[in-house]
Amino acid sequence: MAYPKSLVIIPTYNEKENILLIMAEILKQNECLEILVVDDGSPDGTGDMVQAETEKNPRIHLLRRKGKMGLGSAYVTGFKWALERDFQRVFEMDADFSHNPADLTRFLDAAENGADLVLGSRYLDNKISVVNWDLKRLILSYGANVYTRIVTGLPISDATGGFKCYSRAALQALNLDKMKSDGYCFQIETTFKVRKKGLTVKEIPIVFTDRTRGTSKMSGGIISEAFFLVLKLRLGLA
After folding, report:
1. Strands 6-12 and 33-39
2. Which of left, alpha, beta for 183 (phi over 0: left; psi -120 to 50: alpha)?
3. Taking 90 as the threshold, does the pLDDT of residue 233 lie above it?
4. pTM value?
5. Residues 110-129: what's their mean pLDDT?
6. Is the dihedral of CA 33, 160, 176, 117 positive or negative?
7. Strand, coil or helix: 226
8. For 126, which DSSP code?
């Protein structure tokens, strides 16, 4: 199937062990896919590695930022870059292979069938599809999604997941200049607001495999931010 021009946005900070491998796998999946790496001044040279690849391959693009500015702002920067160009589908994806590049065409198929936002779900139909997590992290993630559904009424199994595909219309419906959240919080906020605009949200099952190279960026501050954002969304304050 011929898919429309699509962009995979990958935020990075110290991902030199993964970035070249993940980009190669993404580009293998379909010729419609291009990559935008948004690098937050990685001291390990991730940005320099990507820069070298942009000079070899016109499907790879790089935006450099001066320092760690957060996952949410990295995606907003990438979304704006995509909207300034003719991309019709825009992905969020991690650099560390926790998201399987082979799933990209499944997202595109779901988008072609009318979904404005396609979510990769780790918890669809009450099945847990997570590899290499300890029990504490699993309980925290699963519990955050239960909490989100109860408080917001959002009928989504995995609102905190970071493997997503937006239509151009979905990104245009968001007020990107008012998106201030990060991490879990950003994922909940974007999904909630896309659905509130009356657009179609669809979940597809994925298997999430925890990173084997590099260091996780999860923090307690991101988790607490998500707790309060969900309340603000429910009360119409965000």
Report:
1. parallel
2. left
3. no
4. 0.92
5. 95
6. positive
7. helix
8. G
